[in-house]
Specification:
The protein has 306 residues and is α/β, with parallel strands linked by helices. The protein contains twelve helices and 15 strands. It is globular and about 55 Å long.
Length: 306
């Protein structure tokens, strides 16, 4: 059994390869050869204990992301088993792994959604998770413009400076969400906001929005009209969305005729299905299958798996 540290994850797992392995994992899920269950939470004494199981049967792996969080901080680990030998292969410290796969998943979905490689990109949020949102999108698109908005302009400016140095791409910070969104065709929001940050009027005639921050029912990143005016809404898992996504819960209540497509079914959609869909949304909350798939790429790079 291998114990893999945060430092080893950072050294051995790349964003672009994680985009590719997540695509393989969800194609496998779509074909009925991989599995997951939505996140379960146990809340006690102001502490939250979370479990997220997944089976990447295509690669003969089963695993579980688990983490505990309270006012003293959070600790994330991923356990991965070999399904053929029923052996525990690895325990992986998973803060960095979670950051990478959280950025990689919307990039994978967006790559399948949009065929034009030149895009304008806006990231809303400037924290730890926002870094890989930008890195992953830059790995699959030619970004003509990159903007960032944060509720604190100083944080957005620091993020822009930091990511320019890291990526070699020009990143501009804006004081308003509407200013940051002006030239964006791809929007990634990764915040813990309880109130909508932008609405339909802030977006152009063509857009793809990835909402990646809120996974509690009291949180919202986009106004309801972003959803109601969209041609397609994709969610990782509807059961989980109806527990954790404030936006999807409200949409189902107020607009029951507005349907969402689960990610597994979206993976079956080809260019003909997507033709004419100019305004699209992906709501991401995180599934254990993603962590197991990222763990596979990591262990393969480290020589643990062939």
């Amino acid at each position: 059994m291998h114990y893999i540290t945060e430092e080893e994850v950072a050294k051995n797992l790349g964003v672009r390869e994680t985009v590719d392995i997540l695509e393989e994992a969800f194609e496998s899920y779509s074909a009925g050869t991989s599995y997951y269950r939505p996140r379960e939470r146990i809340i006690f004494n102001e502490t939250v204990f979370n479990t997220m199981p997944g089976v990447f049967q295509h690669r003969h792996l089963a695993g579980l992301k688990t983490y505990i969080a309270n006012r003293n901080g959070a600790r994330f680990v991923v356990l991965i088993f070999d399904t053929r030998k029923t052996e525990l292969l690895a325990v992986i410290e998973a803060n960095k792994l979670g950051q990478i796969r959280t950025g990689a998943l919307p990039a994978m979905v967006t790559r399948r959604m949009l065929k034009e490689k030149n895009q304008g990109f806006c990231v809303i949020g400037s924290g730890f998770q926002a870094e890989t949102q930008l890195e992953a999108m830059a790995s699959v698109f030619n970004l003509d413009s990159i903007s960032v908005y944060s509720r604190t302009f100083a944080n957005a400016s620091k993020f822009a400076e930091r990511m320019q140095k890291k990526t070699g791409l020009e990143v501009r910070a804006f004081e308003t969400a509407s200013g940051a969104l002006k030239d964006a065709t791809i929007v990634n929001s990764i915040t813990d906001s309880n109130d909508s940050i932008f609405s339909r009027k802030d977006l152009g005639e063509e857009y793809h929005v990835n909402l990646c921050g809120g996974n509690l029912p009291n949180r919202r990143e986009a106004a309801e009209d972003v959803f109601t005016h969209s041609d397609l809404i994709v969610v990782e898992d509807m059961e989980q969305a109806m527990k954790e996504s404030g936006e999807i819960i409200s949409l189902a209540k107020d607009h029951p005729g507005k349907q969402c497509v689960e990610l597994g079914n979206f993976m079956k959609m080809d260019a003909n299905h997507l033709h004419g869909m100019k305004k699209t949304v992906f709501k991401s909350m995180g599934l254990g299958l993603e962590d197991v798939a990222a763990g596979y790429a990591l262990m393969k790079n480290m020589g643990i798996l062939k």
